[in-house]
Amino acid sequence: MKNTLLLLLFFLPTSAVSGNNETDSLLNVLDRTIKERHFYTVVKEHRINDLKKYLRDAVSDDEKYDLLGGLLQEYKGYQIDSALRIANERIEIAQRRHSEENKIIAQMNLSEVMSIRGM
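Given the sequence above, the corresponding structure tokens read:
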């Protein structure tokens, strides 16, 4: 019993130190990511603008529905009000197309956005 306790006490400090190194490493990654947030914002806005451009040029409801799905994914964690509007647009398109499957998917999108928003 004493030997087990001594062994445990011997290894405990080394595991605590290694945990701190891992935590420090994760904090460094987080700090670097926060410093580079402008870059991530620019990239996201570029993807959003590209999708909006394709949406303006889209002719069929199928294309619009799919492109709105891409926009929804981009907006979900970025601008939740825009994501809510897009989810409702997807429902309208699915109803217009009489596509029960797409309507269900769009309603699930709407419920996901509303849960993120806290509604």
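The mean pLDDT is 85. Try to locate this feature in the token string yourself.
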